[in-house]
């Protein structure tokens, strides 16, 4: 089998969705599809990143994203090292830049960074020689999450163009929301944000989305209902009066979901707060909820991103196709 | 031995008297001895001669707020470096911010600064003190004694006094000594975790936003308190259209209030933050384009009395951080005048009006004899060419810190010579 002609991917880093064109997004998703197939086989290991070093630099706790990146790198044959804040010198007063420069001296090909400050991945990318993948920076961006969400939807519904995507909950603090707003906007979907005004950034209307403050109008005829996690420290009177009140007006349950299209998909970037932003019955509905699938897509999307950045092109992995 | 210097063949600019004419200035020792067409028969032999070759000569600039690093922050700035920077920027008097370590709230510290300025400063340095002890916003400092020791104004720098009763008492008490209270107006709770203007850029970047109302609400509160107490009040740095309107209204009511701006608030807007440029992180934050335009209008119609550099030197370690963690502030001594001149070149502010905001404006607020070209005034002068094309280059700054949002900006104008008390302290090479 012959590989289709490779599409150049001229990005050194993946910091956000805004640098990507719709064609590049589609090509990344195509490549991800290949990796989904690969990941479902018993023998999952490739050698496309053999000899390459990937450092996962996590300044914020994360289970699924870190594991997902680690698996992605290992399945492509890279040497993967995980660094989390507990074991790093940051706590001894070393700055992000110092840590980055130190690790850079060890010649990693890819650094995957998660940090609680918006812009941390941008800052890191200015100081290192290899590629930087943003695995979530503050409230700014989480591009691989947006890509895996898009892949999940595309595989279920066949396309993204023309869909109505309702993103609900804590938009203000959410990097997932910002990256998804950009990605779905670029791919021709209609994006709605649904939240109380206290959980929306000031100029959210300028991002090309419809703004809704109630779930009934926000979910009306939606194809996709994407719920965001509400951080517990943001409840208790600060942004919303109580969990009880939040769930009543913004938690996803059967009644509210009834306003969306009958076959609307339910998504959540995880980890879920059952009974806060989403009802257990809805979250576990195997016909509607694609939350587990999102996790599976995550590994494939991260493999595609690693592959594309390291090789500076998007092509079907020949080894996989040959099997 | 008397030192006489004749500055000949100059375009004399003095906003105090609206003078814009060809002529000469004679200084004898530290004072101006005469101004006008002085040497029809040539400069007498006992005078040193500086031929201005037709360039502009104006009173030296007075910068109403700049951090000079001493004591305690010498790694960011020193009086020696900071005053050399001032001289290079045409500034002859610098009002030193009390944001020092320890914080300048004691007479001994004011006296320390005066001694340091005497020994290592190349321009005049005027001390200030905080309004409250430790800038904690609670107990007021010894305003009377500190003023006697030389503090020309009282400010808690970039901290706002949240408790209105504290500000009320400070203003009321300070009025006894006719002391000036300069206040940074931001409601701390509305600033919250905000680090830049609350708008589209903050939304896109995922940064916490500071609404313009945080500033205007406290400014309006302050103006009500001034109505109650009297006293002299100066809003140190305003940045929004609503604040300009509030100041205008207060002045129309006849309150004794003044206000100032920093150059970045009339020259830049929030877009300057771009991709997390920490050199564009200032306090109050860079605002929307609408606000920026309102600041220009406020300068044009005189609502805004003065322009101050708000020089806030920061070392690379304080700025090479994720945006939210990075320090606020920008250096400004060397760019104050050059960026100000943009208003003149754009036809927004006549040259004399611009100079007024930088000379007689602050002189009047502070009650200083300098800032004017007249007999017996201090011989503090700046000679400049407003038209020379140039590019701001932070690498060449005299200041110890280089955190300028104006680095590499093309400008027009060049300071040729700066004179303090009759002696040249800077000359362009």
What are the salient characteristics of this protein?
A: 323 residues; alpha/beta; four-stranded parallel β-sheet; globular; B: 429 residues; eight-stranded mixed β-sheet; five-stranded parallel β-sheet
Question: Can you tell me about this structure?
Answer:
- By secondary structure, chain A is an alpha/beta fold.
- Helices cover 37% and strands 15% of the residues of chain A.
- Chain A has helices spanning 22-39, 64-75, 96-104, 120-125, 143-157, 175-186, 215-219, 243-250, 254-257, 280-283, 291-311, 318-322, and strands at residues 7-8, 53-58, 79-84, 110-115, 131-137, 164-168, 190-194, 210-212, 224-227, 265-267, 313-314.
- A five-stranded parallel beta sheet of chain A has the order 8-7-6-9-10.
- Chain A is globular, with a radius of gyration of 19 Å.
- Chain A starts with 6 loop residues before the first strand and ends with a helix.
- The model of chain A has no long low-confidence stretch (mean pLDDT 91).
- By secondary structure, chain B is α/β, with parallel strands linked by helices.
- In chain B, the strands form four sheets. In chain B, strands 1, 2, 3, 4, 5, 16, 17 and 18 form an eight-stranded mixed beta sheet that branches. In chain B, strands 9-10-13-14-15 form a five-stranded parallel beta sheet, with helices on both faces.
- In chain B, α4 (164-174) crosses α7, α7 (212-229) runs parallel beside α8 and α8 runs parallel beside α10 (289-301).
- Chain B is globular, with a radius of gyration of 21 Å.
- Chain B starts with a strand and ends with a strand.
- The chains are: A alpha/beta (323), B alpha/beta (429).
- Chain A binds chain B through residues 95-97, 115, 117-120, 122-123, 137-141, 175, 178, 201-204, 206-207, and chain B through 198-200, 202-207, 209, 211, 275-276, 317, 320-325.
């Amino acid at each position: 089998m012959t590989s289709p002609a490779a599409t150049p991917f001229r990005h050194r880093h993946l910091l956000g969705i805004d640098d990507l064109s719709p064609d590049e997004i589609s090509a990344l998703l195509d490549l991800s599809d290949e990796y989904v197939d690969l990941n479902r086989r018993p023998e999952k290991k490739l050698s496309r990143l053999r000899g390459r070093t990937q450092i996962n630099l996590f300044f914020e706790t994360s289970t699924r994203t870190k594991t997902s990146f680690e698996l992605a790198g290992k399945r492509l044959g890279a040497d993967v090292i995980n660094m989390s804040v507990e074991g790093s010198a940051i706590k001894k007063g070393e700055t992000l830049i110092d840590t980055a420069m130190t690790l850079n001296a060890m010649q990693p090909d890819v650094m995957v960074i998660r940090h609680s400050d918006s812009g941390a991945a941008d800052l890191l990318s200015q100081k290192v020689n290899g590629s930087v993948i943003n695995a979530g920076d503050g409230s700014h961006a989480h591009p691989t999450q947006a890509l895996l969400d898009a892949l999940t939807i595309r595989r279920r519904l066949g396309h993204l163009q023309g869909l109505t995507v309702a993103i609900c909950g804590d938009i203000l603090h959410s990097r997932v929301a910002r990256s998804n707003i950009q990605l779905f906007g670029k791919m021709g979907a209609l994006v709605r944000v649904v939240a109380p005004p206290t959980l929306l950034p000031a100029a959210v209307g300028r991002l090309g989305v419809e703004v809704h403050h109630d779930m009934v109008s926000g979910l009306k005829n939606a194809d996709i209902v994407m719920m965001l996690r509400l951080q517990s420290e943001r409840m208790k009177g600060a942004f919303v009066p109580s969990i009880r009140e939040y769930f009543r007006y913004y938690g996803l349950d059967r009644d509210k979901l009834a306003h969306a299209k009958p076959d609307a998909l339910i998504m959540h970037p995880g980890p879920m707060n059952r009974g806060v932003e989403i009802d257990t019955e809805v979250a576990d509905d195997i016909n509607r909820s694609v939350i587990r699938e999102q996790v599976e897509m995550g590994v494939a999307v991260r493999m595609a991103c690693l592959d594309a950045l390291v090789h500076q092109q998007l092509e079907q992995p020949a080894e996989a196709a040959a099997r | 031995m008397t030192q006489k210097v004749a500055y000949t063949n100059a375009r004399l600019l003095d906003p105090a008297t609206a003078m814009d004419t060809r002529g000469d200035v004679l200084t004898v020792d530290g004072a101006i001895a005469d101004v006008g067409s002085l040497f029809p028969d040539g400069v007498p032999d006992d005078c040193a001669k500086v031929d201005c070759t037709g360039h502009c000569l104006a009173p030296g600039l007075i910068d109403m707020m700049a951090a000079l690093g001493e004591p305690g922050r010498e790694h960011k700035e020193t009086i020696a470096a900071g005053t050399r920077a001032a001289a290079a920027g045409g500034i002859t008097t610098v009002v030193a911010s009390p944001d020092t370590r320890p914080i300048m709230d004691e007479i001994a510290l004011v006296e320390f600064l005066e001694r340091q300025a005497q020994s290592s400063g190349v321009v005049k340095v005027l001390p200030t003190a905080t309004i409250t002890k430790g800038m904690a916003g609670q107990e007021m400092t010894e305003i009377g004694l500190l003023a006697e020791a030389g503090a020309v104004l009282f400010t808690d720098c970039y901290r706002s006094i949240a408790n209105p009763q504290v500000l009320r008492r400070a203003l009321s008490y300070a009025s006894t000594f006719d002391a000036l209270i300069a206040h940074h107006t931001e409601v701390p709770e509305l600033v919250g975790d905000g680090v830049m203007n609350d708008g589209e850029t903050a939304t896109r970047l995922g940064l916490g936003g500071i609404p313009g109302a945080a500033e205007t609400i406290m400014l309006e509160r302050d103006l009500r308190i001034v109505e109650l107490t009297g006293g002299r009040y100066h809003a140190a740095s305003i940045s929004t259209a609503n604040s300009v309107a509030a100041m205008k209204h207060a002045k129309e009511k006849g309150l004794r209030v003044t206000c100032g701006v920093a150059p970045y608030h009339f020259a830049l807007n929030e877009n300057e933050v771009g991709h997390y440029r920490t050199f564009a992180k200032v306090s109050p934050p860079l605002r929307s384009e609408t606000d920026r335009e309102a600041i220009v209008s406020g300068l044009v119609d005189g609502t805004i009395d003065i322009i101050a550099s708000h020089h806030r030197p920061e070392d690379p370690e304080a700025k090479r951080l994720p945006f939210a963690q990075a320090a606020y502030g920008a250096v400004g001594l060397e760019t104050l005048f050059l960026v100000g001149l943009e208003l003149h070149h754009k036809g927004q502010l006549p040259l004399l009006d611009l100079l007024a905001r930088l000379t007689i404006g602050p002189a009047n607020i502070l009650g200083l004899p300098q800032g004017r070209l007249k007999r017996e005034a201090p011989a503090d002068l700046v000679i400049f060419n407003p038209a020379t094309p140039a590019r701001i280059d932070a690498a060449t700054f005299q200041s110890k810190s280089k955190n300028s949002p104006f680095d590499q900006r093309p400008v027009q104008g060049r300071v040729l010579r700066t004179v303090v008390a009759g002696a040249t302290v800077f000359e362009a090479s």
